[in-house]
Amino acid sequence: MAIRVDVRTSASLLGTVLTALSGPLAVLAVVALVYREPIVPFVVPAVVSLVVGFGLSRFERTDPGPREAFLLVALAWLSVALVGAIPFVLAGTGSFANPVNALLESMSGITTTGATGILAFTGHARSLLLWRSVLQWLGGLGILVFAVSLLSGLSVSGAQLMETETQTRDVTKLTPRITHTARILGVLYTGLTSLLVVVLLALHFTGFAPRMTLYNALAHALTTVSTAGFSPEAESVGAFSPVVQWVVTAFMFVGATNFVVLYMLTQGDVSRLRDSEEFRFYLGIVVAVAALLAIVLAINDEFATTEATLRHALFQVVSIVTTTGYATTDFDVWSTGARYLLFLGMFVGGMAGSTTCSIKTVRWLVVVKAFRRDLFTAIHPSAVVPIRLSGRPVEESAVRDSVVFVLASVVIVGAFTVFVVADAARTGTDLGEFAAVGAAASTFLNVGPAFGFAGPFGSYANFPETTKLVMTVLMWIGRIEIVPVLVLFTPSFWRS
Known about the structure:
Blueprint: H1 7-34, H2 40-57, H3 66-91, H4 99-110, H5 126-150, H6 159-165, H7 178-205, H8 214-225, H9 242-255, H10 259-266, H11 271-274, H12 277-299, H13 306-321, H14 336-345, H15 361-379, E1 388-389, E2 392-393, H16 396-427, H17 433-444, H18 465-479, H19 483-486, H20 491-495
Antiparallel strand pairs: 1-2
């Protein structure tokens, strides 16, 4: 039976992505020159990306269908991760002397995971550390463009729910053309990033953030709005003043808000935010978990003042729930109850149509409503009760998909935990069960920091090589929400 996928169209579009990637690499080469650092780690992948991308883009293309879109999305993230690892490999400094660590870092970057393989930040070129931030910013932009402009037509990334919740009949028609929609989202995304750079620099020049140089402002703005979490500082955001931590908390929260809703706000339409049931659910979860965590921290006298307790609790909850992965303190030394709260927060995620990862609040909202409906119909079996979001009915297929996605995520994390524990035992790695399940959840759900030696100020370099390779694959699968990758391994995708 003939192959039903137009591979040439997917390859041509992939070529466009790789050609565009050469631009940021060239910019980093200039940054390396400014800092008098080696430029070869950036020039080589820039040339590779440009040549391979140009060659692939020469394939004849047609309008991509669902199969071509699935193939493109899966290959785009994988290819960018492979090219993005070249600067780390060529630099060969620190833990990047190991190519597996370099690939883990690159995949963690482009998937906005934030799980680092760096053991010591000293000794790495500043341009190389900035490349990590650029990778994460590109990954955040990429998921916005793909999720809203492309995957929404495939019922992926909670798109059906996003259309219902934002009261947008077709999110691909936010404007008449998909390319125009992508451009608007890119401008909004860039605008938020630029705004954060300005705010952080203003804090620096007014004396509220002495360590917030232009370099740090740019690096942290790139990884905050993208809800990604790489920092060039070993202490993450804990290296900066409390006012910086409050500002970063706010921008992490905004980065995990539906960008369709944010766009409507820029058009003066506040009703989309006001009427968004998902936003209220998202805000409610953050406030409730942060309040509970603050109580636990206060009971255990973790911090000396109320302000510090509230700041660290809110910051860490927002960081984990939005899957950013920043830290202001080593939460791995907190009490068991506090750490379990953060672990549960890994499974939440921000709103659909944002840069965030994990399961996402819209799916949890639908699952909660479906459970409540089941309780009601158990008493009233003849009742017909549609599930609604913001007053609009949700298709039953979307309800079923949400339940399946949540179940699949939990099963994958559980299965991967078993593998992590078994692989650690095989190699003699000292790894506790809680640290193992934390690392499994954090990598698949694209959160970043976990517990144990993979904690907020730790590194994933200490895991066995086989575990790190599987983590790399799972970050890829989790970032584009399982289906676009796994569907490629079904024979019916290629031939039916």
